[in-house]
Design goal:
This protein is an alpha+beta fold. The chain has helices at about 5-20, 25-30, 35-45, 65-75, 80-95, 95-100, 105-115, 230-265, 280-305, 315-335, 340, 350-355, 365-375, and strands spanning about 120-125, 140-145, 145-160, 165-170, 180-185, 195, 210-220, 225, 270, 275. The structure holds flavin-adenine dinucleotide. One of its GO terms (molecular function) is acyl-CoA dehydrogenase activity.
């Protein structure tokens, strides 16, 4: 990746924002289990940070994905993962399909205010009975003249309690599971939508995640993104950016764990000398930093190809898999060297240990990434390389 002065300026803008607006408040937001999302999003919107890659016609910066990646990486310096996660939902999970395939009217109504930060979005794919198996979801949108009538529910929806719209994946016909789905933008104040109290999570506690119910929710068909039945394909494309964002966002969070652990091990003495003087510890830190650099290289390579409009399904899946696995390894190893202090709830490494654990589960679990990689390697039983 060749970073320009513009990339570095963007990095600094994000870093300054995190240090000024997010980090001083993280402990309080983590305790409360939420943060003032509309206020923060409006401030991000004022700096154009919610529309880095989005079209200029709708208020975005019109830059390529490498700038998005730089921002995702820099948001990783946040003192709690929940706030960046919720920003990533807005920029890289619930709006990519809208920006790419949405109509002019949809973009005016939903994309423009998502970029300015006036509207908060969420992405509704997972259900109680369908997380990994996206094709098996049951929420349906039945045709009724110019409208759809939506019934069903969505589970684990980040930002839902504060969201103004949901980008919803629902069945719009009885066709085959990969051909019967559509992405529909549904305003969250539409009658028939209810949001359960936010879920009590292991980590990412400053972001809200909740179950959303749809009971005869009437929405105009003009809110459907693209042609009926193309929602599964669009969501799979949208997942590529979600996965790249997830990998990029972990890099600096993990580096932060290593740096803080080194600082702690310099101060903390056992048997008359600083912990860091133990070769087992300073070698381990060197190993972890090496692994983080490898994750960075993989993520940058995927990003470069994505910018060149190549298919990055395999590389993005590899980056997401590596980020999840390494996230568990780094946070676990670092926590160990903090001893009892590392086991305390508010310890920064213990918080990262809980936050980063999500990466192996959300947005496609490690095993789903392995399945995609195997499929593209041609090693899945019954599948040949190139089969769709
Ligand atoms: C904090 C949080 C935020 C989230 N935010 C959102 C959101 O905003 N929008 C949204 O739509 N969803 C969201 N999700 C849902 C998330 O994407 C799903 O939890 C995830 O896709 C896994 O689905 P599942 O929980 O149903 O696990 P399941 O599908 O039940 O799988 C359970 C486990 O089984 C294993 N597994 C599954 N399939 C296979 C297989 N074929 N082979 C081998 N092993 C397998 C995996 O280890 C997996 O973790 C969120 C989840 C969490 C925890």
């Amino acid at each position: 990746m060749q970073f320009t002065e513009e990339h570095q300026a963007l990095r600094k803008t994000v870093r300054d924002f995190v240090e000024k607006e997010i980090n001083p408040n993280c402990d309080e937001w983590e305790r409360e289990g939420r943060y003032p999302i509309h206020e923060i999003f409006r401030k991000l919107g004022d700096l154009s940070l919610l529309g880095i890659q989005k079209p200029e016609d709708y208020g975005g910066m019109g830059l390529d994905y490498s700038y998005n990646l730089v921002a995702a990486e820099e948001f990783g310096i946040a003192a709690a993962g929940g706030v960046p996660l919720s920003i990533g939902v807005q920029t890289d999970m619930c709006t990519p399909a809208l920006a790419r395939f949405g109509s002019t009217e949809q973009k005016e109504e939903f994309l423009r205010p998502a970029i300015t930060g006036e509207k908060v979005g969420c992405i509704g794919v997972s259900e109680v009975g369908a997380g990994s198996d996206v094709a098996g979801l049951k929420t349906n949108a039945k045709s009724d003249g110019d409208d759809y009538i939506i019934n069903g529910h969505k589970m684990w929806i980040t930002n839902a309690p504060s969201a103004d719209f949901i980008c919803l994946l629902a069945n719009t016909s009885d066709d085959k599971p990969h051909k019967n789905k559509s992405l529909i933008i549904v305003p969250m104040d539409t009658p028939g939508i209810s949001v359960a109290p936010h879920l009590d999570k292991l980590g990412m506690r400053s972001s809200e995640t909740a179950q959303v119910f749809f009971d005869d929710v009437r929405v105009p068909k003009r809110n459907r993104i693209g042609a009926e039945g193309t929602g599964f394909m669009m969501q799979m494309l949208q997942f590529q950016e979600e996965r790249l964002w997830g990998a990029a966002n972990v890099i600096k969070a993990l580096e932060g764990c290593v740096d803080k652990t080194i600082d702690y091990c310099r101060e903390r003495e056992t048997f008359g000398q600083p912990l860091i003087n133990n070769q087992a510890i300073h070698f381990r830190m060197a190993e972890l930093q090496t692994e983080i650099e490898a994750l960075r290289a993989l993520t940058y390579q995927a990003c470069e190809l994505h910018v060149a409009q190549k298919d990055v399904t395999q590389l993005a899946s590899m980056a997401k898999l590596k980020a999840g696995r390494l996230g568990r390894e780094v946070t676990d190893a670092c926590l160990q060297y903090w001893g009892g202090n590392g086991y305390m709830w508010d310890n920064p490494v213990s918080r990262a240990y809980r936050d980063v654990r999500l990466v192996s589960v959300g947005g496609g679990a490690d095993e789903i990434m392995l399945g995609i990689i195997c499929k593209l390697m041609g090693t899945l039983p019954g599948k040949q390389k190139g089969d769709s």
